[in-house]
């Protein structure tokens, strides 16, 4: 059984993020890069499946990132993934959801898979659209927002979150899932894991290796940014100290009335 | 792009509000593009929901009451939506920016080679082209994007547009079942834990609880009562979800949902950056906290410093009794 986990490298949430007005892209230089927090749950889900399945099940990390992202990928290996594929190419810069999913799908197909596990979204782009597009390009069933997953032989059984509960879904492998944090808190790399990760393989891959039929990167983009604007920052509002519940409620009711919200 | 196609999410025989909002916006866009407004309604109750969509200005409601739509996850819906898109020709397809909408939009986008825009808060036609406005970086930057493709897919944020009904005309048309398809992802069971509840993404009022709430109980009692009185939903901060007080589907923030209700009431939430990025674009933010120096005070429109266990029930009574009308 081969499980592939897709991960993205994103700017740290606490970092000062901005978009370059000239390229209209997120500035990624000079900003600390981390594993997308959602993808840590994907790694956790894959490792839980591996822990249960035991011998013969491997977890491969696949990412699209600059060469400099190698050290961040190593964290996934330190958590317990077996190896990694790092798709790096200047020609990928400026890829939108479509291009990213298309190129990643090709890399995943090349590596081979029974199950692909993704995070639900990234903390930088926050489109939440990569897993669906990836499933489509891989030509496999895709189930998103999974909160619980089991493998019974070559059948996947999962629970998908809904707004008012969940769905129980099953499908044969190969398949793709995206998981939420309900899957369980992501494990920390152990010291042994960190030491071991240094010896694990991060296989480089370029666009030339993939021989894609359609263009990706900025030339293959399906959307363009027409304008960027900075909304005014939210300002500090009123602060009211109240003595009891009645006074607090009255302050809120008056405020909501003034705002015509009630 | 000429026609505008709206995918309709529905529940219990009624379209969800985001779909009504989308249809109203779609009508305006289709008029500017010189095309038709189409709605796609699938699964149980599709005919009745389709008929209701006509009153929101839809020209053609494409419906299919096909049991496969409810028996299998997502794939049958993608096939139906694709069929309508191919029939319409170059079109804008509007899906809700919800769990289902993101899935459908992204699968269809990959299939059609369409440009995809997410978390769209405004749609306009400028110089004959569709322009999509979305906040990025947690609301720090507003981008306007255009499509470079025949088909465009816009995943629109609930509460971004006004819904306007009471219109006449249009027709309901039955869709043919897509040929030669087989489906593998079987829905074994649909478990409803909170019937009739609106999700935090769709609610126009969200009452969220954080660490200061102290346990699971208030989420079911005082916060729920206030949310019900305001016709809203209950949300939560990461701390509350991580403590197991409430399920992840309620979480607002970086590893939860990004929402923009017209009113957000943060109860016992300090407002760290991870929370802020999920709700910063709400219309009005009211915070209740016992600590006057919490970060949320820096960006809330009103911070009431006091005992949430006293204030929240009292506030609910006020709202329920309509005392504010006096």
Describe this protein with a few key phrases.
heterodimer; A: 262 residues; alpha/beta; Rossmann fold; nine-stranded mixed sheet; two-stranded antiparallel sheet; 7 helices; 13 strands; globular; B: 326 residues; seven-stranded parallel sheet; five-stranded parallel sheet; 10 helices; 30% helix
Textual characterization of the structure:
The complex is a heterodimer of chains A (262) and B (326). With 262 residues, chain A is of the alpha/beta class. Helices cover 29% and strands 29% of the residues of chain A. Chain A has helices at 37-53, 70-79, 97-111, 130-138, 191-197, 207-210, 245-258, and strands at residues 2-7, 9-11, 33-35, 58-64, 83-87, 115-119, 142-152, 155-162, 165-172, 175-179, 202-205, 223-229, 238-241. Chain A has a 9-stranded mixed beta sheet, with helices on both faces. Chain A has a two-stranded antiparallel sheet with strand order 2-3. In chain A, α3 (97-111) crosses α4. The model of chain A has no long low-confidence stretch (mean pLDDT 92). With 326 residues, chain B is α/β, with parallel strands linked by helices. Chain B has 2 domains: 3-174, Rossmann fold; 205-325, TPP-binding domain (Rossmann fold). At the A-B interface, α3, α4, β7, β8 and β9 of A face α5, β7, β9, β10 and β13 of B. β12 (223-229) of chain A pairs antiparallel with β10 (141-147) of chain B, so a sheet runs across the interface.
């Amino acid at each position: 059984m081969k499980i592939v986990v897709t991960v993205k490298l994103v700017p740290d949430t606490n970092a000062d993020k901005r978009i370059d007005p000239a390229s209209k892209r997120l500035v990624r230089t000079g900003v600390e890069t981390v594993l997308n927090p959602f993808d840590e749950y994907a790694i956790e889900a894959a490792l839980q499946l591996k822990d249960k399945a035991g011998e013969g099940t491997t977890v491969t990390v696949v990412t699209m990132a600059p060469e400099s992202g190698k050290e961040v990928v190593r964290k996934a290996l330190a958590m317990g993934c077996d190896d990694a594929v790092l798709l790096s190419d200047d020609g990928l810069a400026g890829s939108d959801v479509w291009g990213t999913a298309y190129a990643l799908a090709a890399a995943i197909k090349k590596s081979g898979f029974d199950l692909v596990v993704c995070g639900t979204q990234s903390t930088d782009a926050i489109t939440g659209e990569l897993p669906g597009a990836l499933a489509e390009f891989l030509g496999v069933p895709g189930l998103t927002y999974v909160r619980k997953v089991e493998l019974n032989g070559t059948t996947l059984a999962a629970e998908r979150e809904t707004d008012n509960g969940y769905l129980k879904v099953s499908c044969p492998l190969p398949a793709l899932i995206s998981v939420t944090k309900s899957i369980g808190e992501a494990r920390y790399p152990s010291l042994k894991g960190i030491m071991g990760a240094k010896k694990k393989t991060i296989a480089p891959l370029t666009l030339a290796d993939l021989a894609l039929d359609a263009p990706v990167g900025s030339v293959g983009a399906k959307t363009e940014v027409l304008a960027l604007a900075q909304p005014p920052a939210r300002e500090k509002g009123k602060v009211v100290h109240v003595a009891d519940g009645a006074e607090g409620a009255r302050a809120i009711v008056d405020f909501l009335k003034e705002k015509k919200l009630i | 792009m000429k026609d505008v196609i709206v995918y309709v999410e529905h529940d219990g025989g009624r379209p969800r509000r985001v779909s009504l909002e989308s249809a109203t916006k779609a009508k305006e866009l289709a008029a500017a593009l010189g095309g038709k407004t189409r709605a796609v309604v699938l699964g149980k109750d599709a005919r009745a929901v389709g008929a209701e969509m006509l009153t929101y200005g839809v020209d053609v409601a494409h419906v299919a009451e096909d049991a496969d739509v409810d028996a299998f996850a997502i794939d049958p819906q993608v096939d139906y939506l694709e069929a309508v898109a191919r029939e319409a020709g170059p079109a804008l397809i509007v899906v809700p920016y919800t769990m289902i909408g993101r899935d459908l939009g992204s699968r269809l986008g990959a299939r059609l080679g369409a440009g995809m825009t997410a978390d769209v808060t405004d749609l306009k036609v400028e110089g004959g082209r569709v322009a999509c406005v979305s906040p990025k970086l947690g609301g720090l930057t507003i981008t306007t994007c255009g499509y470079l493709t025949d088909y465009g897919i816009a995943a629109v944020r609930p509460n971004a547009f006004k819904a306007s009904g009471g219109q006449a005309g249009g027709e309901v048309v039955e869709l043919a079942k897509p040929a030669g398809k087989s489906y593998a992802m079987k829905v074994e069971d649909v478990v409803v834990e909170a019937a009739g509840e609106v999700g935090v993404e769709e609610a126009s009022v969200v009452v969220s609880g954080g660490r200061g709430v102290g346990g699971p109980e208030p989420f079911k009692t005082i916060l729920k009562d206030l949310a019900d009185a305001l016709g809203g939903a209950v949300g939560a901060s990461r701390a509350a979800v991580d403590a197991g007080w409430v399920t992840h589907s309620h979480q607002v923030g970086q590893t939860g949902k990004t929402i923009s209700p017209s009113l957000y009431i943060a109860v016992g939430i300090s407002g760290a950056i991870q929370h802020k990025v999920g709700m910063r674009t709400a219309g009005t933010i009211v915070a209740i906290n016992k600590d006057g120096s919490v970060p949320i005070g820096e960006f809330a429109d009103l911070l009431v410093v006091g005992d949430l266990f006293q204030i929240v029930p009292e506030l609910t009574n006020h709202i329920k009794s309509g005392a504010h009308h006096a």
